[in-house]
Write a structure and sequence with these properties.
It is a single chain. The chain has helices at 62-83, 151-164, and strands at 3-11, 17-21, 24-29, 32-37, 44-49, 52-60, 86-93, 100-106, 109-115, 124-127, 133-136, 143-148, 178-186. By secondary structure, it is α+β, with helices and mostly antiparallel strands. It is elongated.
Length: 191
């Protein structure tokens, strides 16, 4: 069954400017600027007022109407990124061989090197996405902290670190070693 029109509204907080031109969204805030291209989704993105964005789908089926919430989530994640930023914390889990990490900043690139995973001599290297900062936590042992404005870059960098430390050819119920995401939060905390 097709719906004649469905819509949803995203509110824009103070101090954030949103520019929309042919489904290309640019959000500017106190922490920087983020851009998102949504031209592959057929829908209207309108500005009824300065503090609202309206996303409309005309003559949409069930799957097409589901894209409304996806686009609204993308826009709100951009707004959160330029106002608060995103912070992912990752913990090293090991039973016997202690995992160690080294953060290497080469110009604009940041590489995380993971050593001694399951006692292996091979050094695993993960290239961080642009705009993602990585530090080793000083007050918590065996913890990496990934921060950035773009949720896609921060979460994909964390996923790449987790995926490179998968256990292969062993029983994963017994060998639980790896680097796992322990918490997801914003850099600027709410009071």
């Amino acid at each position: 069954m097709k719906h004649i029109s469905k819509d949803d509204i995203v509110t824009i907080p103070e101090g954030v400017t949103v520019d929309i031109k042919s489904r290309q969204i640019t959000v500017t805030g106190p922490r920087g600027t983020l851009k998102r291209d949504l031209r592959h989704i057929q829908m209207d993105i309108q500005r009824p007022s300065k503090t609202e964005i309206r996303v409309i789908v005309w003559q949409g089926g069930r799957k097409h109407v589901a894209c409304i919430r996806t686009v609204c989530s993308h826009i709100s994640n951009l707004i959160t990124g330029v106002t608060k930023g995103f912070e992912y914390k990752m913990r090293f889990v090991y039973a016997h061989f202690p995992i160690s990490a080294n953060i290497d900043n080469k110009g604009s690139e940041t590489i995380v090197e993971i050593r001694n995973f399951l006692g292996e001599k091979v050094v695993r290297k993960v290239l961080m996405h642009p705009g993602v900062d990585v530090i080793q936590s000083t007050n918590v042992k065996d913890e990496l902290v990934l921060t950035g404005n773009d949720i896609d870059s921060v979460s994909q960098s964390a996923a790449s670190i987790q995926q490179i430390t998968r256990v292969r050819n062993k029983d994963i119920r017994k060998f639980l070693d790896g680097v796992y995401v322990s918490s997801k939060d914003t850099i600027v905390k709410d009071n």
